[in-house]
Amino acid sequence: MQNKNRYIISKVFKINLMILALLVLHVGVAIGQKPQFTQFYASPLYLAPSFTGATDGSRAALNYRNQWPEIPGAFVTYAFSLDHFFHNYNSGLGLFILRDEAGSARLGNTTAGILYSYVFNADHRWTMRPGIHLNYTQQTIDYSRLIFGDQLSIDGNHSPNSLITLPPMENVAYFDASFSWLAYTSDIWIGITADHLMMPNQSLTGQNDRIPLKFSLFGGYKWLLSGTYAGIEEESISTAFLYKNQGSFNQLDIGVYWFKYPFSLGLLYRGIPIFNNPVYGIANNDAVAIIGGLRTKNLRIGYSYDFTISRLMTSTGGAHEISLIYHFNQGAPVKKPGKIPCPANQF
């Protein structure tokens, strides 16, 4: 009898966790938040379309993130991008694909898009890169994976049928667009991105649930300790930040990165400690992350781990993230754009 009670308690605990995950998921869907990467410069096309074609040739990038693996229905994100710089046209062209999945009902978003950027010199020091991203997204959910209260029984089993009325839609698709502007010198960069310019309707219930505009401001500064910029002998320290605003939600990532060929090491903080969450009134602290990287002539490998510092500190399992960036078809053209000094060249 005691073992049976423990089993029932365990079952109820798991159900409560599932409900908590769904509530968190519902809040995330309601405000249209996008997946995020701790190594945001290792997914440059996701950060801003201005980074499209930001090498001397072609580049392919793979990103994987597993956020909060200890919570049922963890957030898992995959991304792939491919871009190339066309020197004769001072233009970059790219392809970006992202798959994000979360929650017990496997709420998923699959996004595919094309990106374009143009580069020009504003003066002898500053280089400008405007960029645009046009994409198509399909959002899906599997209601059959949910277990509702009227399906449960005291013996721990559950019925396959429920009297709960499910929403009428299991998928929705929409077009969207983003625009960005990046300005940089040999040691400083600053940029801004505006996402969800079309404010598409993402509702799975047939109602009006438009994704609010999202704005990102990013930038940083690089100190060259020895060697030459973007050279094998380079040793440098960079500071970088990424501020995001969507609706009433704000987030700030700020980090410092050390690079000495072939190794990179970074430390990042995520949160705005002097402000509380406007909805729940809790402290806006999220995570501290350690980032490590290895760079060869053509390959960049990065790994990061997020240590949760919010109230969920002991429950989430943090977040693991892996990035792979491969440069190929690199040349030495006569017309060569300046190197962007951000950590994308190290991670």
Question: Describe it for me?
Answer:
There is one protein chain. The protein has 347 residues and is mainly beta. It has a single domain, classed as Beta Barrel (Porin), CATH 2.40.160.40. Helices cover 10% and strands 48% of the residues. Strands 1-2-3-4-6-7-8-9-10-11-12-13-14-15 form a 14-stranded antiparallel beta barrel. A hairpin with a 7-residue loop joins strand 1 and strand 2. The protein is globular. The N terminus is likely disordered.
Question: What is the H/E string?
Answer: HHEEEEEEEEEEEEEEE
Q: Uncertain regions: pLDDT < 50 for 5+ in a row?
A: 1-32
* Fourth-tier CATH superfamily name: monomeric porin ompg
Strand percentage, roughly? over 45%
CATH class value: Mainly Beta
Supply the number of structural domains: 1
Gap from first CA to last CA: 56 Å
By DSSP, the count of extended strands is 15
Mean pLDDT: 83
As a whole number of angstroms, the C-alpha radius of gyration is 22 Å
Main sheet summary: 14 strands, antiparallel, barrel
Widest sheet, order of strands: 1-2-3-4-6-7-8-9-10-11-12-13-14-15
Helicity range:
under 10%
The CATH topology name reads Porin
Give me the secondary-structure category: mainly beta
Q: Please report the number of helical segments.
A: 2
CATH architecture descriptor text:
Beta Barrel
Shape category: globular
